[in-house]
Amino acid sequence: MKNNQFAIAPADHQQRVTELQTIHLLHPDEEQQLSPNQLWVKLLTRIHIADHTPALDHEWLNSLLATPDQSITDWLNQNLPLTNRVFYLVALQLLQFEPAIDFAIDDPLTGMEKIQLPMEHHEHWTTANVIDAFYLLLNTRTKLGQNLLDRLTSQGMLTWTYALPANQKPIYFNGKPIASFDPTRFIREVVYVETDMDTDYDGKADLVKVEIMRPADSNDGLKVPAAFTASPYNQGTNDKWGEEITHNVNIPLTHKDPHDQSPAEPDFPMTFTKQTVNGESQTAAESFSTTPAYTLNTYLSVRGYAIVYASGIGTKDSDGLQTCGSPEQTDSMKAVVEWLHGDRRAFTDRTSGIAIRADWCNGNVGMTGRSYLGTLATAVATTGVAGLKAIVSEAAISNWYDYYRENGLVMAPGGFQGEDADVLAAETFSRTKSPADYRRIEATNNRYMKGLAAAEDRTTGNYNGFWAHRNYLPNVDNIKCSVMMVHGLNDWNVKPVNVKNLYDALSGMPNTSKLILHQGQHIYINAFRSLDFSEMINLWFANKLWELDNHADELLPDVLVQDNVHPETWTTYTNWSGNQSTTLNLTNNSLTTENATASGRVKFNDHQDDATYQKWCQKPAEWSQALLNDFDGHFSAHFVSTPLKKDWLLRGTPTLKVRVASSADHGLLSARLVDRGSAKRLTVSPVILAKDGLELAYHFGKDDLREFQLQKETTDAKVISYGHINLQNRRDASSVDDLTAGKFVDVELPLQPIFHTLSAGHQLELILFATDYEMTLRGNEAISYQIDPQNCTLVLPNN
C-alpha cells in the first residue's frame, strides 16, 4: 500500500494557525495557553464529532493506542512529553490504518514511511509543532482514499459552515475550497441556450437543454464558477438501434482506386431565425431531479462549484441532429460556455421567449469528463472561447480518424467491432425518447444519417473532409485555457495516440498543460486509493476558476505516470518521450525469428479454415491468445529479443519500418509489441477495495474505492503497443498508391505510444500479421505475406 499525494500546498505556521481557527479546530490563544500535550488532546477530541460529553471524550481517547501497550488516556496519566512515535502511532489509527496489517505497532514511523505518508519530525514537541503536524495530518490521505479532513467532513464535522453568510464562502483550507455548501439546498434548474446553427433544417436556431445544480448561496450574492460536463449520453441512448445498424466487419479488404473520391457530408442551412425576446426572468421555470453524474462533479459540488450538464444538439429536449464530433456539435457546447460567461442568451423554456442570465456565475468555466465527454471538452477548448479557463480531458479523442480509422483502414475502437460515426450518432440521438418530437424529425434525421454514413466512407477507410472536420489538432493553437490530460496506457478504445498527439501539440504553448498516464483501460481514476486525484482537481480548479493564488501549476507535476510493475506507484517526469532512442534490426543481432526461409525472408498466410475463422470472429480474445502462441508462424511472424539484463523503460512512440509484399493487389500489415516474460502483472481493471467506501460529502454521494493490484496468477506476456496500415496508404492516410501482387514495398508504421518498463529477464517481442480480429475488417482472404527482415527496423524511444 502506497500513498501518493501531489495536492498538499506548502503553508507557513501562521497560515496553518489561521486556517485551523477558520474551521474552529484551534481557538485563539490556545497556542500560548496550552501545553503541547493539552493542545494535542484538544485537537483530537474536536475531530471526534460523535462525542458530546467529557465521558465520551475519555472513552474515545481510551480506544486509541499511544504506545504499543498504552491507550492515550493511560499515557497522558504519566505526564510524558509528546514524541514522534506517539503522535504518528495515533495518526495512523486516525487515518484508518490497522496495526499488524498495515504497519508494525512498535514502529509507526517506519509504517508512515512505507505507506509514504507525510510527517514532521521534532526532537522536542512544542505547541507550534503540534499545530503544524496536525494541520499536515488533516491533509494526509486515509486508507479509504480521502484526506482526513474530507473524511471528517463526510461525517458532518463542518456542517456548521452551511449556515455561514454567502460572503464568507468559499472557505479555503490548504489552497482548496472545503465542503461548506449544503447539498440539501442545491438549486436544480433547466435553461435552453440558443445556438447559431440550424442542424435540423426547421428554419430556427437550435436550442440546447442545460441542467444546472448550484449552491443556494449563489442566489445570495456569491458568484460561483461552473464545472461543465458536455455529455451526449445524459439524456438517454438508443442501444438497440445502435446494435441494429452496427456494420458487418466480416468482409474482405478490397483494392482501392487512387482516383476515387469520398462523398461530402451534408451541409446545414446558413440562414435561420432566432427567438424574439419577450422578457427576462431571474429564476428558471423548470427543474430536474437527477441526472447521470460523474462522481468528481459530485465531490466538487459541495465545494461551491456549480455543476452543469448538457447533451447538445440531437438529444432529448434539445433541437438539431446528432453529428458525432462535428464543428456543429462543438459549437453547441461552446454556446453553453458562452452563456455561463455572459456572452449568449438562454431561455426559461423552448417557446415563451423569456430570457435568463447566468448571473450567479463568476464567468469562469472548467470542463470535465471522460471519453466522448472529454473529447468535447478538448473540442470546445480549441475554439478559444472566452470564459473557459481549464479542462480535465480524460480518455479523450483528439482526432476522430484515430478513433474509427487508422492509416487507410477501417478500424474499431477496442471492444466495439462494427461501430462507426453513424452508429454512435444513432445511439446518442435521444430525441427518440420524446415520441412526438421524434416523429416530426424522423424523416429529416434519416436523410442526414444516410449522408453521414456515406461521408464517413467505410469503403476506402481514407482520411477525407469528413474526418478533417473532426480533427481538433489543427486548431490546438487556439486553446487559451489550461489543459489537464488523463489517459490509460492500456486504453484500446480511445487509443493513446489521441492523448500523445494532443500533448505534443500543446508542448511549447504558453498555457499550462498537465498529463497523467495510468495503467488502466477506458476508466475514471478519481476513486483510486493511491492517488489524490480529486484533491488535485480541486486545487487546480481553485486556481483557475476561483482565481486563488495557490501555486497549483508549480505543485502539480507536468507528467505523472503510474508504474506498470510496482502497484500503487506514481512517478513524476518532465515530459512523455525519452531523450534517446534505440534502433533494433529484425535480424540475428537484435530481434530474431526462427521461421526465416533460405532467402532470409519470413512468410505467413492470413487465411484460416472456416471453423477457426468463425470461432475467432465470435470470440476475438481467443484469436488474440492464438496470435501470441503462433510461434510456428502459421499466420504471423514473431521477432524476439534476448532476455534483458536490466530493467528498460520505453517511453514515446515506437516506429516500425518494414519491407513487405502481398500476394494480392491489396493488403494490410498489423503489428503488436509484446512484453514477453512470466510475471504477476497488474489487474486489467481496478479492483474494488470498498464498495461505497468513498464518501464524497456529508450524506451526499458515494463511490467505490478502487485500485490496481497484482494478479494472483502469473501471465507469460502482455501486449504493450500495436499498429495497423493499409499497404496502399504508404504515404499517408489520404493518399492511395497502387500495390502490385508479389512486389515488395517499404512501409513506415508508428505504433501506439507507450510508457512501459520491461523488467530484467523479460524479452521484447514484435509480432507482424495481417487481420486483427479485434479491430480490422475480417475477410479471411487467402493472401500470403512476405517480410524482408534485412530491411526492417524498430525504433524505440527510451531514457
Automatic annotation (TrEMBL):
Residue ranges constituting the X-Prolyl dipeptidyl aminopeptidase PepX N-terminal domain according to the UniProt record: 1-157
Xaa-Pro dipeptidyl-peptidase C-terminal domain: which residues? 538-795
The reactions it catalyses are: Hydrolyzes Xaa-Pro-|- bonds to release unblocked, N-terminal dipeptides from substrates including Ala-Pro-|-p-nitroanilide and (sequentially) Tyr-Pro-|-Phe-Pro-|-Gly-Pro-|-Ile
Q: Name one GO biological process term.
A: proteolysis
Name it.
Xaa-Pro dipeptidyl-peptidase
EC no. given is 3.4.14.11
Does this UniProt record's set of keywords contain Coiled coil? no
Keywords of the record, alphabetical order, are: Aminopeptidase, Hydrolase, Protease, Serine protease
Q: State a single Pfam family of this protein.
A: Peptidase_S15
